[in-house]
Amino acid sequence: MTLTKTHIIDTLYRNTGLNKPQATRAVETFLETVKKTLEAGEDVLISGFGKFCVQEKKERRGRNPATGEDLVLSPRKVISFKCSPILRKKVND
């Protein structure tokens, strides 16, 4: 099963004193804060969960797998996730 934003909102609603609109606003605010931080090129560290890191990829040569044609991939930013040791242990137990 995939965890969706709706499921997170419902869980927050059921497990706190927040009503549904408040839970929705809390989740949306959290996600918007994470997005804006990553857009600014900063990392997001959530203790006990992990770290979202913005990494710069340089321009490089590539190949179109369908045609075999050589091409140049432009520089870009990618987001990676590094799991915390606490979460890794929980997943592996």
Summarize the structure.
The protein is α+β, with helices and mostly antiparallel strands and 93 residues long. It is built from three helices and five strands, in the order H-H-E-E-E-E-E-H. Strands 1-2-5 form a three-stranded antiparallel sheet. A two-stranded antiparallel ribbon has the order 3-4.
Strand order of the largest sheet: 1-2-5
| Morphology call | elongated
**What is the helix tally?**
3
What's the overall average pLDDT, rounded?
A: 95
User: What's the multimeric state?
Assistant: single chain
Q: Could you tell me the strand content as a percent range?
A: 25-35%
CATH-derived topology of the largest domain? HU Protein, Chain A
CATH homologous superfamily label of the largest domain:
IHF-like DNA-binding proteins
Largest sheet features: 3 strands, antiparallel
Helical fraction equals: 40-55%
Assign the CATH class of the largest domain: Few Secondary Structures
> What's the β-strand tally?
5
Write the layout of secondary structure elements.
Layout: H1 5-15, H2 20-39, E1 44-46, E2 50-57, E3 60-63, E4 70-73, E5 76-83, H3 85-92
Antiparallel strand pairs: 1-2, 2-5, 3-4
Helix pairs in contact: 1-2
Structural notes for this entry:
The structure is a single chain. The chain has 93 residues and is of the alpha+beta class. The protein folds into two domains: 1-40; 41-93, HU Protein, Chain A (Irregular). Helices cover 42% and strands 29% of the residues. The protein is built from three helices and five strands; from the N terminus they run ααβββββα. The chain has a three-stranded antiparallel sheet with strand order 1-2-5. β3 and β4 form a beta hairpin. The longest helix is centred in the N-terminal third of the chain and has 20 residues, at 20-39. It is elongated, with a radius of gyration of 19 Å. The two termini are 19 Å apart. The mean pLDDT is 95.
